[in-house]
Amino acid sequence: MTTETPPPATSGSSTSACPNPSSESAGVPSWQFRVFFDADCPLCSKEIALIRRMDRGRGRVDLVDLSAKDFDATEYGLDQSEIEARIHGMYPDGRVIEGVDVFVEIYSALGWGWLTAPAHWPGFRTLLDLAYVWFAKNRLRLTGRAPKMCPIEPSPQTSLDLPSEIHSGIRSKSG
To answer: What is d(CA 68, CA 93) in angstroms, rounded to the nearest whole number?
Structure first.
């Protein structure tokens, strides 16, 4: 699934859609594809370790840890809760994709595109998409972690915060 995201604002004279000083020279990214991953997820970390080995230090895939304390999704024009809910990737021009398409692009950028051929088969692709959606919805539970987003706070006025007249009336009727 491709979503059009405006390129994030950059400072200075850089023409890159997504600043990353360590992987860019003269404003042109050296990476072919950027992936946002959760280093706190054990399964995600194993996949990223494999990607690093396959890349062999060539920097074709820019790996951005969305669980890092200093990570700010808005710097990339993204929403934190959305990228935590499912994997997202970005092309150098700022286009964003998510889900199975991210894995297809990662392995294509690494020169292993043949490995993703089944992702292009209509029936099999549907199964891959369904499996990924299920995994994405359940990955925190499957890896023994709680959701990162804070629960909604209860309202200050709860059923127990009734006026004292009501409390005394309840007590007198029940006792």
So the answer is: 24
